[in-house]
């Protein structure tokens, strides 16, 4: 069944690519309602240390005792019942991490009430609208940067968005990474390179971390690459109290990893409004949270060498 779906997806994406409704920007392109125009901000290994300045007290800050997130691949908001689910799911969430998001009013307008501060890292333009990963928040980030990697077969980019958020009464800064991983490959080299590029930036950060997204982790080899990332960055994974995550070849595609935080609640919800199910998590800053040494060596998976 999945092989048939995969084949049809490849054909559909190819037709989209050669049609006039899809175009690709020449470089990383972040957009936000907080900026007058798009910002070209490519993450690199020097990005994070330069941004880790103590935020001014006038900055809005997240409550370290309650950080709520939802992670969801919204399937380009194509299904009829998507809007009602979306409005209900984002209610009372500090952070909303979306994959396959599009800069359209039906997606961005519901965010204005509770998560008005959003950035989208453009993978491509779909009907003249930016499409990619979008992270929305109840407070503005103090820093944002993006990465992108090109699908080897279909030549459409996948993107990563990294944001930093200050925490109340804490010297710690929360790093949040929103990832949509490469999907269509014959091997794992391109997949590993994308994970490595993100990991190389995140490893410069010494504070708490949340990494969430659609990892397209449908093989043992891809799971091995993810496990290497988890070990390298001293991450933990959710326990996942139910089996509602979408699986392909027996492997879950969507993941939430974290560091320096404790879980207070988590749930994966079953919906028909997307081909992925949303994951909701509530965190608090760990009482034992200690900054990780940002200068430790990155332990390489064989594919990274």
From TrEMBL:
<protein>
    <recommendedName>
        <fullName>Endonuclease/exonuclease/phosphatase domain-containing protein</fullName>
    </recommendedName>
</protein>
<dbReference type="InterPro" id="IPR005135">
    <property type="entry name" value="Endo/exonuclease/phosphatase"/>
</dbReference>
<feature type="domain" description="Endonuclease/exonuclease/phosphatase">
    <location>
        <begin position="71"/>
        <end position="276"/>
    </location>
</feature>
<dbReference type="InterPro" id="IPR036691">
    <property type="entry name" value="Endo/exonu/phosph_ase_sf"/>
</dbReference>
<dbReference type="Pfam" id="PF03372">
    <property type="entry name" value="Exo_endo_phos"/>
</dbReference>
<dbReference type="GO" id="GO:0003824">
    <property type="term" value="F:catalytic activity"/>
</dbReference>
């Amino acid at each position: 069944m999945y092989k048939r779906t995969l084949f049809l997806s490849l054909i559909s994406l190819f037709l989209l690519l050669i049609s006039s409704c899809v175009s690709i920007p020449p470089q990383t392109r972040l957009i936000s309602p907080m900026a007058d125009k798009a910002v070209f901000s490519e993450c690199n290994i020097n990005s994070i240390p330069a941004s880790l300045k103590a935020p001014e007290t006038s900055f809005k800050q997240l409550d370290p005792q309650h950080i709520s997130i939802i992670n969801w691949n919204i399937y380009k908001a194509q299904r009829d019942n998507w809007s009602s689910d979306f409005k209900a799911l984002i209610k009372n969430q500090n952070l909303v991490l979306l994959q396959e998001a599009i800069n359209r009013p039906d997606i961005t307008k519901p965010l204005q009430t509770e998560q008005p501060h959003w950035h989208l890292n453009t993978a491509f333009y779909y009907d003249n609208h930016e499409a990619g990963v979008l992270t929305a928040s109840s407070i503005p980030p103090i820093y944002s940067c993006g990465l992108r990697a090109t699908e080897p077969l279909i030549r459409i980019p996948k993107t990563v968005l990294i944001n930093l958020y200050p925490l109340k009464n804490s010297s710690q800064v929360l790093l949040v990474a929103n990832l949509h991983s490469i999907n269509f490959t014959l091997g794992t080299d391109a997949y590993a390179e994308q994970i490595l590029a993100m990991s190389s930036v995140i490893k410069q950060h010494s504070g708490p971390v949340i990494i969430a997204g659609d990892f397209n982790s449908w093989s043992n080899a891809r799971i091995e690459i993810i496990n290497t990332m988890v070990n390298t960055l001293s991450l933990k994974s959710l326990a996942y109290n139910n089996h509602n995550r979408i699986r392909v070849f027996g492997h879950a595609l969507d993941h939430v990893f974290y560091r320096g935080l404790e879980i207070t609640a988590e749930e994966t919800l079953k919906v028909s409004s997307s081909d992925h199910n949303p994951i909701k998590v509530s965190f608090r800053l760990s009482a034992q949270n200690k900054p990780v040494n940002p200068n430790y060596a990155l332990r390489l998976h064989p594919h990274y060498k």
